[in-house]
Amino acid sequence: MYSNCGVHHQNPPSMSLSSSLLSKLRLVTVDVTGTLIAYRGQLGDYYCMAAKSAGMPCPDYARVHQGFKLAYADMSRRHPCFGHAAAMPTAEWWKVCVRDSFARAGYEYDDDTFERIFRRIYATFGSSAPYSVFPDAHRFLRWLRRRGLAVGIVSNAEYRYRDVVLPALGLNQGSEWDFGVFSGVAGVEKPDPRIYEAALEAAGGVAPAEALHIGDSLRKDYDPARGLGMHALLLDRFRTAEAESWRRSGVPVLPDLVAAREWLDAGDAKDKEEAEHVTAR
Fold it and tell me: Gene3D superfamilies annotated for this entry (predicted)?
């Protein structure tokens, strides 16, 4: 995994800064998982169901889920960005990760059996089946684009998110988002600030002060975006324990994208009211 590259808080925007923020923005970038979409159930559920479909017992879903987390972290460390630098095919990267996930959970399969299990898992996660879209996602993204703002996706994900998963969920390039920077394609992943630099460039060379990033991770989303001079806010959709410490440190933390729109809209309305008052004088 990439390091945080010395990213630190630089005068994080308080909630009151929204009073002038919307009129300054040209670009809004958004994280995907936890921000726009969520998993249906746990990863271990899908892995064990695939094993059972091949006639193999897999009773401990939680253990497989934990095995996946360890295997994924190890693969991301050894071959970041889904094997981009090593020119490793995405399917091969996942095959190693999936086999290691089962092995860490104590399940070993012969090659033919594992191949059947893997094909099912790979196909499942290359579809919309394991994901759900948060109900506020489409409306928020389209509202941004109607306001004339560019919308970019910034995600630690491989090409199937861009080409298959997001379109299958109705999150389409051209209606909900304008461009995407995906780690498996770009070869750089969050929290490396270069992925945000790539987004600014993809939007036509937008200045950091004219961009807002929305995500759900202090380390991967907020800190690197703010380190570049972008505005940023975090969503806490699941009422996580760490969110309170984020708030205490001055980070804007909102429950969902409805609140994010209200936050931006309220500031825009205040700007207009103040401008009208000045004109009237």
Answer: HAD superfamily/HAD-like, Haloacid dehalogenase-like hydrolase
Nearest to 252 by CA among 21, 32, 38: 21
Structure tokens at 66: 């934990």
Report DSSP state, residue 30.
Answer: E
Distances from the Cα of 36 to the Cα of 110, 140, 170, 276, angstroms: 38, 10, 11, 36
Q: pLDDT confidence of 144, banded at 50, 70, 90? A: very high
Closest CA to 110 of 173, 177, 56: 56
**CB under 8 Å, gap of 24 or more: what pairs does 71-78 form?**
71/97, 71/98, 71/100, 71/101, 71/103, 71/104, 72/97, 72/101, 73/1, 74/100, 75/100, 76/1, 77/1
Amino acid at 238: F
